[in-house]
């Protein structure tokens, strides 16, 4: 309780710490963030997911290209001549990436010596990991870094630039660490980018984490290395969302099915191949969990995911098949389940769908032939729905009884 004898006439409103000290209010000392999280975060510069290794030349596809663009560092070439030849396409992305990088670095500087409400100054990158969005002052930095990641993603999509994609994913991941609630929604862009890069296990683990976390508390300590062909019930799967991850899961399931089926057609069903040798060869063609499940099981799972999308947003698959008709449609705020959400998801993830050979044609056949299948529902979801149904029945019964009582009262 404040001291009644305190003279408040001399308190400087610009010095909240002095006021707190006068009333004997202590905010305590800021506590350092988890060292493991601090080690995962940088202010701006990131390394590719693959580490400091070489890539294919972005112009001629020559192997072991190591000459990164000196201005943006987001594209790699094998020679200066390839860089000059590609400049007319790359320059627009290079300019945006360079400007966003400069702004992000500038906005990171004051956060190294950050103070709020008169607290002792500290480095926000060491003491406030996970709370950046909640502190308000770091929000411009978060927005600038998200813009940088989106410019890298644009370069990846337009220039078929895997290095830019890897850098964008790293920025998205660090933004999710800096603001643990992912208030900017950057998680929606990560899984399809991972699929496009061929990092299927990482994509599935990411999707699995967010689908389960969306439905209820996620307490599985092991968040990596899960069976990509596991039953969808394990995901606590529901046709009510989150649509961004179910949409990404549909693409992943298609890639799994298509590659496994192609390998089976080539190896397993060849009349002159010994069955045991064929099974052994399959382990080199596709991941073991895919070959063990088989293309038939994977196709059933693919149809289950597509069926769920038809329930959660009836516009999504049709607009995916007809994406060319909507190219001029603006992307903005959206409502769950309507066309605005469908176009937001498609416009954000269209390039990986286009690169997956036959993916949209499969969806077109799925819609034309009405190949919907029952959606797997977990036991927890079944219990929840049963409880909701019981509540509705109880409410309906109570309303009926009140109506009968009112009728009797009126007659009397």
UniProtKB/TrEMBL annotation:
Q: Which domain of life is it from?
A: Eukaryota
Asked if Metal-binding is a keyword of the record, the answer is yes
Tell me one GO molecular function of this protein. zinc ion binding
Q: Which SUPFAM superfamilies does this chain map to? A: HIT/MYND zinc finger-like
**Keyword Metal-binding attributed:** yes
What keywords would UniProt list here?
Metal-binding, Zinc, Zinc-finger
MYND-type domain segment(s): 57-94
What is this protein's name? MYND-type domain-containing protein
Originating species: Pinguiococcus pyrenoidosus
Phylogenetic placement of the source organism: Eukaryota, Sar, Stramenopiles, Ochrophyta, Pinguiophyceae
